[in-house]
From TrEMBL:
KW Cytoplasm (keyword) present: no
Domain Glycosyltransferase 2-like: 9-120
Gene Ontology terms, MF aspect: glycosyltransferase activity
Domain Glycosyltransferase 61 catalytic, chain residue ranges per copy: 415-575
InterPro entries per the UniProt record, alphabetical: Glyco_trans_2-like (IPR001173), Glyco_transf_61_cat (IPR049625), Nucleotide-diphossugar_trans (IPR029044)
Entry keyword set: Glycosyltransferase, Transferase
Name of the molecule in the record: DUF563 domain-containing protein
Family stated for the protein in its record: Belongs to the glycosyltransferase 2 family.
Any Pfam family: Glyco_transf_61
Organism: Desulfovibrio porci
Length: 656
């Protein structure tokens, strides 16, 4: 295999030896000016073809060969090649597709560079938009065509930045093949562009000898199509994670290239939930409810059931969060930016519910996964759980409070989760008398900045942490108005805006820094800040300032910029904004809610995504590296202009 393969071309194979040989022969003859590797995954073909594939591997025609024990389905086979061969870009090539252009990869990558980086590129047989011309990439304004019907395209190329968010092919459908449609649906939900080009420019199909035309849809194919309709609905409603769990895991690959697989135990549990969900959707349609988006008895129970399986899954523990937040992007001259398309705010929920003899179970676990809850008559109240939490097992109370008391929710020491989740019931709490506020928390103490937040919001309630199972005679419970995965209601958004507007000061430019944090940083940010400070930007480290001072600085600056992070939730405390925000993604995506909240406060917002490579750390503490010269270019054009001397980091002014 080429040492620095840019592209992993994976070819799932099941019999049809003549098609396999034509595809491999044509591919191997093409230019290697941009190195790629050829991976073949055999799906239980006859022994003659398997023997031939081994010969190809020994002669170097195939770089990687994996032999599955039986036909596991195209998605499973394609995923094996994707998982076991690491490369920046993955491509699934169908057996029988013959490449006709020697320099296909260099031309397509040059063509793709004119689009947005977090995207896919596939071929289609007929472009309904303007004629696609990859060679137009050499001319100004040449850019890829967007697929008009959401089709992913064939011979699709998928960068690691996309698969890190969406995972790989969905194996729910068994041997049938609707995997491109499923991946395309998740791409559409995430807002990632799906670029395409004319297939005939680079490929032709080699017909199999004796092949017949397409026949009628088999019952198995019909079941797969029906299941895809279910999954597409679940993706759109954010009930099911966009990052899908594979049904099989690799146990071993022996010296003879044979792959040993095992079905994931958690997938079997997941599939039970999925099948039950499909049945429920069928019943809703029979009742004349074709769209379940407004059926709370459907959305929340199934969202919790799916999330519960995902939390227990070893796959998501290794690959990251099961429910990543993703941007909706549109072209920009300097990167990837655009407006987040968010669901409209929920109808303001019923504000209060008074419960007698409520049992509060203390917090057990971490912020990412915990057990807790409020129980009445042995039943956990759904409004007292977060999507990451599960109901604890109720037990005999060890303490008692007479009340009335107010259920505050969960107190988190993470700033973003505090604003979105710990304060999610503020819209209702502010309308109550200052009765004691009861919180469950992994850290049962208030940080100074949390006290400052309560002061901004005018809350004088006594805060009490539940440390042992506690029975409360009278407990007021309100549903949360938002969380880290759900948009904020208008009632909550309006209630949080307590700080009066301040007019921006002309010429003041503020950079909100992450460079002093322990993790979740951009490696080059300190050098970027040195150049910004030289040209009049004020560098603010939010963690070093009182919360009111942070908010004041963001209101008074004419331009506020920085890499995305929880500090940009601080505008929630401001009544309104009239300045300019410029946000840059540090990790190839934005949390859409953050962008929406800044805009709704009245600020003009530009957001940009430049390709970022992960370096050290993991999950929330993952550090990244990116080209900060592009950041400087954006800031120069948006604020000072080139005459003010803002240069690129690491270069003198004459070469900028």
């Amino acid at each position: 295999m080429p040492a620095e393969a840019v592209l992993n071309v994976t070819i799932p194979v099941f019999n049809h030896a003549e098609l396999v040989q034509r595809t491999l022969a044509a591919l191997r003859k093409t230019s290697q000016e941009i190195p790629f590797c050829i991976t073949v995954v055999d799906n239980g073909s006859d022994e003659r073809l398997v023997a031939r594939l081994r010969e190809f591997r020994q002669s170097g025609i195939i770089d990687n060969l994996f032999l599955l024990p039986r036909n596991m389905g195209e998605a499973c086979a394609a995923n094996i090649g994707w998982q076991l061969v690491n490369a920046p870009i993955y491509m699934k090539l169908a057996s029988g597709m013959v490449i006709t252009e020697a320099h296909w990869l260099s031309k397509l990558l040059r063509f793709w560079r004119n689009g947005l980086p977090v995207s896919t590129l596939g071929c289609v047989r007929n472009l309904n938009m303007r004629p696609a011309n990859p060679e137009a990439a050499d001319a100004p304004g040449g850019d890829p065509d967007l697929s008009t019907d959401g089709a992913l395209g064939r011979a699709v190329m998928i960068p690691k930045e996309v698969s890190d968010v969406l995972g790989r092919w969905n194996e729910d459908y068994g041997p049938t093949s609707v995997l491109e449609a499923d991946f395309g649906a998740r791409m559409a939900c995430a807002g990632f562009p799906q670029y395409c080009y004319e297939e005939a420019r680079y490929f032709r199909d080699a017909p199999a000898s004796g092949a017949s035309g397409e026949g009628a849809q088999t019952p198995e194919e019909q079941r797969a199509a029906d299941l895809f309709t279910v999954n597409a609905t679940l993706y759109q409603l954010c009930i099911r994670s966009w990052k899908v769990m594979p049904s099989y895991e690799v146990i071993d690959v022996d010296e003879d290239s044979r792959v040993q697989l095992a079905e994931r135990a958690e997938y079997m549990e997941f599939r039970m939930v999925l099948d039950d969900c499909a049945q429920t959707l069928s019943h809703l349609r029979q009742r004349g409810i074709p769209y379940p988006g407004f059926e709370k008895e459907f959305i929340w129970p199934y969202k919790e059931r799916f999330a519960s399986v995902e939390r227990e899954s070893a796959y998501f523990a290794v690959t990251g969060d099961a429910r990543p937040a993703c941007p909706t992007a549109s072209p920009s001259g300097s990167g990837q930016s655009g407006d987040a398309v968010l669901p409209g705010p929920d109808t303001p929920p019923q504000t209060f519910a008074l419960h007698h003899d409520a049992l509060l179970m203390p917090f057990a676990g971490s912020m990412d996964e915990f057990a807790s809850g409020v129980f009445v008559n042995g039943r956990c109240l759904p409004d007292t759980l977060l999507y990451r939490g599960r109901a604890a097992a109720p037990c005999r109370p060890q303490a008692r409070l007479k009340g009335p008391c107010i259920f505050g929710g969960y107190m988190f020491a993470h700033y973003g989760h505090f604003l979105l989740e710990s304060l999610s019931r503020y819209y209702a709490i502010a309308r109550c008398k200052p009765w004691p506020l009861l919180f469950m928390s992994p850290n049962p103490t208030l940080r100074p900045w949390q006290k400052e937040a309560f002061k901004i919001l005018g809350l004088t309630n006594r805060i009490q942490f539940i440390r042992v199972p506690t029975l409360v005679d009278e407990l007021i419970v309100s549903p949360p108005a938002c969380d880290a995965a759900t948009a904020m209601t208008d009632a909550q958004f309006g209630a949080l805006g307590r700080l009066p507007e301040r007019a921006p000061r002309a010429g003041k430019k503020l950079w909100v820094s992450r460079s002093a944090l322990r993790g979740g940083k951009v490696e080059e940010e300190k050098s970027l800040e040195a150049e910004l400070a030289r040209t009049g930007w004020e560098i603010m480290h939010p963690e070093e300032l009182p919360l009111p001072q942070q908010a004041l600085a963001m209101m008074e600056a004419g331009h506020v910029a920085g890499f995305d992070g929880s500090a940009f939730y601080t505008p929630l405390f401001c009544r309104s904004l009239s300045n300019h925000f410029i946000l840059f993604s540090r990790r190839n995506y934005f949390v859409p809610f953050m962008l929406d909240y800044i805009r709704k406060r009245g600020a003009r917002l530009d957001s940009h995504i430049f390709p970022a490579a992960a370096t050290t750390g993991r999950r929330a503490a993952q550090n990244h590296s990116l080209d900060v010269d592009r950041v400087l270019t954006v800031l120069r054009e948006a604020t000072d202009g080139p005459e003010h001397g803002l240069t690129s980091t690491g270069r003198n002014a004459s070469s900028a």
